[in-house]
């Protein structure tokens, strides 16, 4: 039983969706439940790591033994991650961060006037790419939620974001991925890859944490 393969290491995990406000009462977000990221945080604690969990708005109890920092928007998540990055050995970005946010958050509730409503969105910062570009960067593990060309897009993100490892997540499979208890991952790194077949997110998290420990210790 690999209980201490991450002993002494500091790990930061992001989990859940972000929530991007439109006005005082509305936001855009996505279906991430946080289950995958919370399972990874739990598995990392059990593997002996000191874990900081940066969580978007989710309805989950904090895994025993990890430090939790709650955030709402991508900007807030980036701020939290930059605070902890300095003392992070391994960063695992499981969060489904909104790629865009409203260009302006309305100060007052948007009124129902015309038959159409047009909103303008601007790019959010890429948290993972920002952390991976730091001078003293941690070992960076990304996720890639894809509905087509899964492996190719995942490999693109591995290279373009400067990652050490990426977990490709085909989100078209029934009963897996967003907001379910099960998932399947194709984990890819520079000179290897491994399929972690469909199982509970807890099982997958254990498998992923083991792979990360193996690759991290090769460095
Ligand atoms: O939360 P669950 O319901 O358990 O579902 C789990 C999951 C499907 C959300 C998870 O397994 C998953 O695939 N997470 C990544 C979702 C995602 O937004 O992927 P992406 O391909 O858009 O992003 C690529 C990587 O960059 C991810 O590691 C993401 O955290 C990161 N990213 C993306 C955009 C951004 N602005 N900042 C980021 O850090």
| CATH hierarchy: architecture | 3-Layer(aba) Sandwich
The level-1 CATH class: Alpha Beta
Spell out the CATH superfamily: CoaB-like
The total of helices stands at: 5
Total domain units: 1
The shape is globular
Strand content: 25-35%
Bound compounds, each kind once, are:
ligand PMT
End-to-end CA span = 23 Å
Which regions contain 5 or more consecutive residues with pLDDT less than 50?
none
Q: What is the strand arrangement across the widest sheet? A: 5-4-1-6-9-10-11-12
**Secondary-structure element string:** EEEHEEHEEEHEHEEEH
Largest sheet composition: 8 strands, mixed
What is shown here, in short?
It is built from five helices and twelve strands. Strand 2 and strand 3 (about 25-30) form a beta hairpin. The chain has helices at about 35-45, 75-85, 125-130, 150-160, 200-219; strands spanning about 10-15, 20-25, 25-30, 50-55, 65-70, 90-95, 100, 120-125, 140-145, 165-170, 180-190, 190-200.
What does this structure look like?
This is Coenzyme A biosynthesis bifunctional protein CoaBC. One of its GO terms (biological process) is coenzyme A biosynthetic process. One of its GO terms (molecular function) is metal ion binding. The chain has helices spanning 35-46, 74-85, 127-132, 150-160, 201-218, and strands spanning 10-15, 20-23, 26-28, 50-55, 67-70, 90-93, 100-102, 121-123, 139-146, 165-170, 182-189, 192-200. Helix 1 packs across helix 5 (201-218). The chain is globular and about 60 Å long. It has an 8-stranded mixed β-sheet with strand order 5-4-1-6-9-10-11-12, sandwiched between helices. The protein is α/β, with parallel strands linked by helices and 219 residues long. Strand 11 (182-189) and strand 12 form a beta hairpin. The protein has one domain: CoaB-like (Rossmann fold, 3-Layer(aba) Sandwich). The chain has 5 helices and 12 strands. Ligand PMT binds at residues 14, 16, 32-36, 74, 93-97, 99, 124, 126-128, 142-145, 157, 169, 177-179.
